[in-house]
Design brief:
This protein is α/β, with parallel strands linked by helices and about 500 residues long. The protein has ten helices and 21 strands. The strands form five sheets. Strands 1-2-3-4-5-7-9-10 form an eight-stranded parallel beta sheet. A six-stranded mixed beta sheet has the order 11-15-16-14-13-12, covered by helices on one side. Strand 19 and strand 20 form a beta hairpin. The protein starts with a helix and ends with a helix.
């Protein structure tokens, strides 16, 4: 009995302890549950906001993509610009015919199989973009009936054949980069492109270009990109076009042979791990961005080169840098002190002096080939003389080692706004001249002549005598008879006595 009584007493005490402790456990559980509910509420709120944002973006895209079915005919006729990019369209609604006031249309990145015949009623359409439409293998027939189109962008597509009847007759700016075009040899094609000033054909599969004649009709052509094709020769007619100024032919079998024969300098090859980042961004061009790093105890500018651009390929640009080496700076050319040969390709350069600016801004689709300058600029005579002398020195150096820059523009120049001293940058469009040494120099002389004219327009109005001499030099450099243009050696002699 005593043992039973002791057991009962112990059971009673244990139950009382449990009874006394249960309110404390309940509070902890309650607090834990409350925190869990708050956390759950905050999470659900964040999800709700994210879903709302996505719904907002989707509604906006749906409104944009359905504009031709959502608006009435009169509302469509008042549209100046329509953006149907990334709308998953298999066809363009026939209501496009009512867009009679339309100036710009973008139908890029859609699974279209053609463009509708109703598009021809858009009689004010000036700019058409239809890039990344992989199901279209040739330019749609309707385009041949659209004389208003002056700018056509058809990049990264599946075009394999160009029917001259389907080309808009008044094109000025034509981009066909990164398609599958194998030949442009029908003289009728060049007749249809007789007004084209800018023609982008890099990264196609061209085996022939102008081989059956007709190139002489392209007397308005100023800029031509033929990089990354399969050309074994460059037609002689091309070099005689009176306005052709900016050309790249790198990455073709003919220029690959020139590159293989070139005597490159012994430039160190390094890896990304050899560089210490500083976090300082210096700028960016068409072929890559430039940042500041530390290497071997000193600051260097590193350009990380994009794999493929409309101007050429990374390996072709690196070959030019290897040829220029570190000897260019003294000749006003930015070369390199090492090659970055890693997963990311690039060049290591000596940093330029501080307080250098871009000389000008690059052209847009509106200017086509002309750089953009600040209208308020006025340059003194000494500034202009220094700038032109340095530019001619840079080009003379490059052509002396067998390189054509291919993209000699003020926007590829860094200049000291006080003195006019400058450096030429960017070999993204450059090529080794090989058999075309003399012809390529004459083209680049024209590019220099355009800079001469641009600076003469910005010269102090009081400098009338200097302006007259500059305009005379401009006429010589841009002579329509290509063979009559001076060499850079001669140009430097002229500049010395200005």
């Amino acid at each position: 009995m005593a043992s039973i009584r002791r057991s009962s007493i112990m059971d009673f005490r244990r139950k009382r302890r449990q009874s006394n402790s249960s309110p404390c456990l309940s509070k902890r559980q309650l607090l834990g549950s409350l925190f869990a509910q708050v956390a759950c509420f905050l999470y659900l709120l964040s999800v709700k906001n994210e879903i709302s944002n996505q719904l907002g973006r989707t509604r906006s895209d749906n409104e944009r993509c359905s504009i031709l079915t959502r608006l009435n005919d009169n509302e469509i006729s008042n549209l100046k610009e329509i953006n149907l990019k990334n709308c998953d369209l298999q066809s363009i609604p026939s209501s496009i015919q009512y867009a009679t006031g339309l100036v710009k249309l973008d139908v890029s990145n859609n699974p279209l199989t053609t463009l509708p015949k109703e598009l021809k009623y858009c009689t004010n359409l000036d700019i058409l973009f239809a890039s990344s439409c992989p199901l279209i293998a040739t330019l749609p027939q309707v385009l041949g009936d659209m004389p208003s189109i002056s700018r056509l962008g058809w990049r990264s597509g599946s075009l394999s054949f160009i029917d001259p009847e389907n080309l808009p007759p008044n094109l000025v700016h034509l981009i066909l980069t990164d398609n599958k075009i194998q030949s442009l040899s029908d003289p009728q094609i060049f007749h249809k492109m007789k007004n084209v000033r800018k023609l982008m054909l890099s990264h196609n599969q061209l085996e022939s270009f102008g081989s059956n004649g007709g190139l002489e009709q392209m007397r308005s052509l100023e800029l031509l990109r033929l990089a990354g094709n399969k050309l074994n020769q460059i037609p002689s007619q091309l070099w005689t076009l009176p306005r052709l100024t900016w050309l790249t032919i790198s990455g073709n079998p003919i220029t690959d042979a020139f590159t293989a024969q070139a005597k490159v300098k012994q430039i160190p090859s390094i890896k990304m791990d050899d560089l210490e980042p500083t976090g300082k961004y210096l700028g960016e061009g068409a072929s890559g961005k430039v940042e500041l790093y530390n290497w071997q105890g000193k600051e260097v500018a590193v350009k990380l080169i994009h794999g493929v651009t409309s101007d050429g390929k990374a390996e072709d640009e690196l070959a030019i840098y290897s040829l220029v080496g570190s000897s260019g700076l003294g000749k006003r050319v930015v070369g390199c002190v090492a090659i970055l040969d890693d997963e990311r390709k690039g060049v290591v350069m000596e940093p330029l002096p501080a307080k250098l600016d871009d000389f000008a801004l690059p052209p847009t689709i509106i200017e086509v080939t002309a750089d953009r300058w600040e209208s308020s600029l006025i340059f003194q005579a000494s500034f202009v003389k220094n700038a032109l002398h340095d530019a001619a020195t840079a080009l003379n150096f490059l052509h002396g080692i067998g390189v054509s820059h291919g993209d000699f523009y003020a926007h590829n120049i860094k200049v000291d706004r006080t003195s006019g001293r400058l450096f030429l940058l960017d070999f993204g469009a450059s090529f080794i001249k090989g058999l075309y040494a003399s012809q390529a120099e004459k083209l680049e002389v024209r590019a220099f002549g355009i800079l001469v004219e641009e600076l003469s327009k910005l010269l102090d109005p009081m400098e009338t005598n200097l302006k007259e001499k500059l305009l005379s030099l401009h006429r010589d450099c841009t002579n329509g008879n290509v063979d009559s243009r001076p060499s850079f050696d001669s140009i430097l002699s002229i500049l010395e006595v200005l």
